[in-house]
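Sharing a chain and its predicted structure for anyone who wants a worked example. Both blocks are below, sequence first, tokens second.
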Amino acid sequence: MKLSTIHHIAIIVSDYEKSKDFYVNKLGFEIIRENYRPQKDDWKLDLKVNDTTELEIFAPKNPPKRPSFPEACGLRHLAFKVDDIEKIVTELNDMGISCEPIRTDEFTNKKMTFFFDPDNLPLELHE
């Protein structure tokens, strides 16, 4: 068996418009598809991360809260590779999105930091 790339990552959000604004207008992901699903009474937004990976945003009514932070079983965080972490942190701060202090990953020796989406899903920047 050969699994070559990640096709998509799916997350569930509590506020569709707030999350759409965050991921599209602030983080800059391009919309591929945006669909209201009447049978589920929710929205599904597909965003382009890069040429091979998509981010799927699902927005059902009243999703359950994350059981604990951040060590719940399941998705721990999403990590995005960046070339210049200081530049990205400055851009996020300019938009009112605060980041944790930049630190060095003890295993890769690369710079990294975390920030959070509107539902407090941890997002990592990794140089």
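Comments welcome. The chain has a mean pLDDT of 92.
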